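Prompt: Have a read of the protein record below and flag anything odd:
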Amino acid sequence: MPSFLSALLFILPAIVSAQEPIQRDDAAVEKVASEGFRAVQASKWNQFVELMHPDALREVKGLIAPALEAAAKDDSEEVEQVLRLFSGIKDVKQLLEMPADKLFVSLIKGVTANVPGFKQALSNSEFQIIGTVYEKDGTAHVVYRGTVKVEEVKVSKVDVVSVKRHKGSWRM
């Protein structure tokens, strides 16, 4: 009897998932990813941020905020270095009070302006969508190959961008 029970427990998830088909929407999901890739290539950050899921934007801010707060307490020189990575920001308080979407745009514009060759590398990048994989919760993962050429060096990597529904549309 234990082997029958083990076998049943092993195949039960497959039986349950077979009864609940995932609603695929590859064209719409991959369109959002493609629009995001084009926005990156063109450095259209406001357009890119409109394609982002609010949860992803909050996550970015949540990762950045503690580091900024710690830097502000310890060393004003370190704060100045960090603030240079943000476009149009004068102090940590201003940065921490910004909505997550504005903070992201400020960060990416600052990095693009301050890191030599970064903007050119992005504009020369290429993205090829390989396919889409769905999770049970409806999250879609777009698998793509990103290729960047800096001077004579070409780097290619397979990566994933996750896409979820938000108010009826797909967002990264």
Observations:
- The radius of gyration is 21 Å.
- The chain has one domain: 24-171.
